[in-house]
Structures are given as structure tokens and as C-alpha cells.
Write a structure and sequence with these properties.
5 helices; elongated; mainly alpha
Length: about 90
Amino acid sequence: MVRRLIHILFMPCRQATLLIEKRNADSITSFQKIRLSAHLMICKWCNAYNRKINVMEDLMKKIFTQDAPEKFNKTDLQLFKDKLKEKLK
């Protein structure tokens, strides 16, 4: 009953998760932000999904904004290729 009320008044969970992803990738309108916030206050599943996505986004930003690792030398690269070929056989 509560879930049906959420869907009628605010938005379905499928749309909420889509807006969460859109918000992280681009930006959403103010009206969409309000509807999403209302949905997240009521729906514990979408709220948990939102928290997990935010943690993952933060981790990805930390990983990709760090300085690039030093270049591989040719021997390390060749060793990696050889090991990969052995595993594929």
C-alpha cells in the first residue's frame, strides 16, 4: 500500500533510480530534484541505492583524479603479455 502511494504521489522507483544516475552524470531540473528528494525520503530501497551510488562515485573520482601511474617498462609489459597468453591456452 505504501509503495503504491509512493508511485502515485511521487514517482516509481525505476524513474527514481534513473534520475539518480542522470544527476550523477549530468544535471536534472529543479522539479526533478524535488520529486527525487521526496521519493528518497520515503523509499528506503532507493535511498540505500542513492547512498551506494554516491560512495561509488566518490571512490571513482578519487581513483581517476590521482596522478597517473608511472609508465610501464617494456619488460613488465612483456611479462604481462606472456602470462596472459599462458592463461588463454
